[in-house]
Request: fold
Amino acid sequence: MGMLWGNTPFIEEGVTLFSFSILDNQNYCSCRNCTKIKRNEGYSGLYLSLYNKACVDVQKYYPGIRLFGIIYAKDYPKT
Reply:
């Protein structure tokens, strides 16, 4: 069996790679921290900030699981 979420299989045995991607829309968090990141680095920077945090958190609970994501932007964020 794989990893469980309660009694429900969350990750199948042998699966180690997951897509972590955003939907195409403008529904982003508008809290103070996210607004600052968005202002300085754009929407892609905001996404990569979340993505990087998710990668760290996933490793805490599911060591060895890898995430991949895609961004498309005219300018690359500093993140």
Remarks:
- The CA atoms of residues 16 and 63 lie 9 Å apart.
- The mean pLDDT is 80.
- The beta strands are 3-5, 8-11, 17-19, 66-68.
- The chain is about 40% helix and 15% strand.
